[in-house]
Amino acid sequence: MAAAASYPSTSWRARSSLTPFNSSLQPQVRAPRIAVPATRTEARSQVAPSAMQSSSTRHRLEAVSHDHKTIPERLAVVTGGNRGIGLEVCRQLALQGVTVILTARDEKRGKDAVESLCHESSLSNVIFHQLDILDDNSRASLARYIESRFGKLDILVNNAGVGGVAVDQDGLRALNIDPKVWLSGKAVDLIQSVIVQTYDEAVKCINTNYHGLKWVTEALLPLLKQSTSGACIVNTTSLRSELKRMPNEKLRNELRNVDIWDETRIEVMLNEFLDDLKNEWLEEAGWPTMLPAYSMSKTVVNLYTRILAKRHPEMRINCVHPGFVNTEINWNTGIIPPEEGARGAVKVALLPQDGPTGCYFDQTELGEAW
């Protein structure tokens, strides 16, 4: 094998986004690599938020008030809020007095979820707005609604995600895999007969779990900067994101150094991963082999979280592993209920302005992912 090479500068020109999962896929010529596994190549500062809003912001908020619309003290957006952990995050934030915009791609499911919260929990501070995180117009529509109705946003919980594999769920249940085996990552051989990782599903997974999260965050950042209570961003991650599970030592060490990464470099690494997955080189290259696309998507969610936290020290920006929750994303193999799985995201969403940022939470406690 060739010796490991160092990373070139970030002037490398990568694709601006991954190929959408429903596009025709054409073979690509392998280009020089940046994040190449070694088997083939090689304090936070505290910035106090301004006590004064700009005159334009004051005018906007006053205009809303003049229309007899109340601006809530804290306003949250939760993506993928119509079921599972997302629905519970909406419920628990609303119970804490936060006005919550529950978003979902499917309008009926989203409205039904809001109605269930209103009736079952007697909550009147949950609002539905449609959001497809992969659709430019949908993201822009949500941002315009918040801008015109509230003029600011205080909390963003990026919860929407997909598993990234095709699964024979009956076959998986028949295996009756011990949860400890799942959590250890030792189930990789057991599940080969019932779980299929295709290139299309991998692209869909990375587009949704990383790019969709990033695009929503970018669309709502201007509103988060107008927060009057200290903005918080919570990114849902996974145990599979912990770098101790990354087989390649060189890549593992590079991922620990947030200073050498930006979105362009992340993009190049993900394209490299997808190229190796397509060519069945994952094990040789040292990528994760247990739910590989899901693992990589959550690994870069953690990295993006740390990049954002450095870039916006006035905000609390963290990632949260909710635990092995019994939800559809893991085919209901989890061992804790969504009510418990939501507690970490809610706790981190309500952090004070001097709370931790750029951190990984294992449920409700600070953990070590890198």
Say how many strands there are: 10
What is the 3D form? globular
Q: What is the distance, rounded to the nearest whole angstrom, between the alpha carbons of the first and last residues?
A: 27 Å
CATH architecture: 3-Layer(aba) Sandwich
Q: Unreliable runs, pLDDT <50, ≥5 residues?
A: 1-68
For the biggest β-sheet, the strand order reads 3-2-1-4-7-8-9-10
Order of helices and strands: HEHEHEHEEHHEHEHHHHEHHEE
Instruction: Tell me the β content.
Output: 5-15%
Integer count of domains: 1
Helical percentage: 40-55%
Query: What name does the CATH topology carry?
Result: Rossmann fold
Average pLDDT number? 81
Can you characterise this structure?
There is one protein chain. The chain is α/β, with parallel strands linked by helices. It has one domain (about 55-365): NAD(P)-binding Rossmann-like Domain (Rossmann fold), CATH 3.40.50.720. The chain contains 13 helices and 10 strands. The strands form 2 sheets. Strands 3-2-1-4-7-8-9-10 form an 8-stranded mixed beta sheet, sandwiched between helices. The chain has a two-stranded antiparallel sheet with strand order 5-6. The radius of gyration is 21 Å and the shape is globular. The two termini are about 25 Å apart.
Topology of this structure?
Elements: H1 55-66, E1 75-78, H2 84-95, E2 99-104, H3 107-120, E3 126-130, H4 136-149, E4 155-158, E5 166-167, H5 169-175, H6 179-184, E6 195-196, H7 199-224, E7 232-236, H8 249-256, H9 263-278, H10 282-285, H11 292-311, E8 316-321, H12 338-341, H13 343-349, E9 360-362, E10 365-366
Parallel strand pairs: 1-2, 1-4, 2-3, 4-7, 7-8, 8-9
Antiparallel strand pairs: 5-6, 9-10
